[in-house]
Design brief:
The chain is α+β, with helices and mostly antiparallel strands and 271 residues long. The protein has 2 domains: 40-143, Lipocalin, CATH 2.40.128.270; 151-262, Lipocalin (Beta Barrel). 21% of the residues lie in helices and 38% in strands. The chain has helices spanning 2-29, 102-117, 222-234; strands at 40-46, 59-63, 66-70, 75-83, 86-89, 94-95, 120-124, 127-131, 137-143, 151-159, 165-167, 175-178, 183-187, 192-200, 203-206, 210-211, 238-242, 245-249, 255-262. Strands 10, 11, 12, 13, 14, 15, 16, 17, 18 and 19 form a 10-stranded antiparallel sheet that branches. A hairpin with a 4-residue loop joins strand 12 and strand 13.
């Protein structure tokens, strides 16, 4: 009799036990929440106890579990994970090994050490605050803008069409400005140019480039540079902001040109 009662009680409890096991398994398997840092880009604005060096903005980008950026001298990359407000960055940062002035290298070392120490974060009002485990503020970063409209740039290097990225000739200035109406314009060193453009996410399409037709003799090689720069500009397929720097890349991922931010200047349209 007691045995039959126990079997009957077990049959009644079994569905409840199974349900509890399934709920527990679901809770363990379910993610802790969305990765709020995914597809965001930031520029360093505050390093406590440090005066940031102008023109050497440190940046960091988070995309699908991968983090990459520039410490002001070298590019770096690593993996990361977010659980709630907890941040884990793989301490084994992979980095290029360019040499920069000592002050810039010191700032870069501080920034990368901050990334390795960060264990929690706050993100609100366009700011990202990295925190140590004890709540100490390690760094503050500002959100990067997510469009090109209304920005102006001075080109620092371009692809010369021979699988090489070369610096702009001394004594010449190459510029490009992106207007909000879908027009871009600038100076190719001798002639002014303009074109239409459109962006979708990180993709960019540049229409036919129209330019004035002056001839310039100085500096030597200027007209050849102008032709190759305009070809590089037209080949752009993707864009990326990296602090105060803009990179345009071709469909194959090759660097088309790099530029540094300037005050936006309305360039004359050639159309």
């Amino acid at each position: 009799m007691d045995s039959r009662r126990m079997q009957s009680s077990w049959r009644l409890c079994l569905p409840l036990v199974v349900s509890l096991l399934l709920l527990t398994r679901a809770a363990i398997a379910s993610p802790a929440g969305p990765d709020v840092l995914n597809d965001t880009s930031w520029t360093l604005s505050v390093l406590p106890g440090q005066s940031l060096i102008a023109g050497r903005a440190a940046t960091v980008h988070f995309t699908d579990g991968r983090m990459h950026g520039n410490d002001g001298c070298n590019s770096f990359g690593s993996s990361y994970a977010v659980v709630g407000d907890r941040l884990r960055i793989d301490g084994r940062l992979l980095s290029t090994r360019m040499a920069c002035p000592a002050a810039i290298m010191r700032q870069a070392d501080v920034f990368t050490s901050v990334l390795a120490r960060a264990s929690t974060f706050r993100s609100d009002a366009g700011r990202l605050v990295l925190l140590a485990g004890d709540g100490e503020e390690l760094a503050i970063l500002d959100a990067q803008r997510r469009d090109l409209a209304g920005t102006g740039w001075r080109v620092t290097a371009y692809n010369n069409g021979k699988r090489a990225v070369v610096s702009v000739l001394d004594g010449s200035v190459l510029t490009v400005a992106f207007a909000a109406d879908g027009e871009l314009a600038g100076s190719a060193g001798c002639n002014h140019f303009s074109a239409s453009y459109s962006t979708s996410g990180r993709s960019i399409r540049i229409g036919q480039v129209v330019a004035t037709r002056k001839l310039c003799d100085e500096p030597r090689g200027l007209m050849k540079q102008e032709s190759r720069f305009l070809q590089a500009l037209a080949s752009a397929d993707t864009w990326r902001l990296n602090g105060d720097r803009l990179e345009l890349r071709t469909a194959t991922g090759a660097l088309a040109l790099t530029s540094s931010a300037t005050d936006t200047v309305a360039e004359p349209s050639i159309r």
